[in-house]
Specification:
Helix content: over 70%
Structural class: mainly alpha
Distance between the termini: 45 Å
Number of domains: 1
Number of helices: 5
Strand content: under 5%
Radius of gyration: 14 Å
Shape: globular
CATH topology: Tetracycline Repressor, domain 2
Length: about 100
């Protein structure tokens, strides 16, 4: 895959993860992702054949990254990723 495609693949995955966290899997559409990225739905489907395939990619990559890093490093990386998307694990959560 050319470098540009790899970057787009990564952009799609990062955006999807953030949107799935906020709006949920069902509440996030391919059209939402495409609009946020300024690309067509076809561009998303070029990289992922379906929204389910995109979710599978996110889950498998997370598992692979955790296995590569080890539990403590994976937790730190997950926290950095979450905070980079605007989340905070230190804030009090409302019931």
């Amino acid at each position: 895959m050319p470098a540009m495609d790899e970057r787009m693949d990564s952009r799609i995955a990062r955006l999807a993860l953030a949107r799935f966290r906020v709006g949920g899997f069902v509440g996030t559409s391919i059209a939402d992702l495409a609009g946020a990225l300024g690309v067509s739905k076809a561009a998303i489907y070029y990289h992922y054949r379906s929204k389910d395939a995109l979710l599978h990619h996110l889950i498998v990559d997370d598992e692979n990254e955790s296995a590569r890093l080890g539990p403590a490093e994976a937790e730190c990386e997950a926290r950095r990723s979450w905070e980079a998307e605007g989340g905070s694990l230190d804030e009090e959560q409302e019931p």
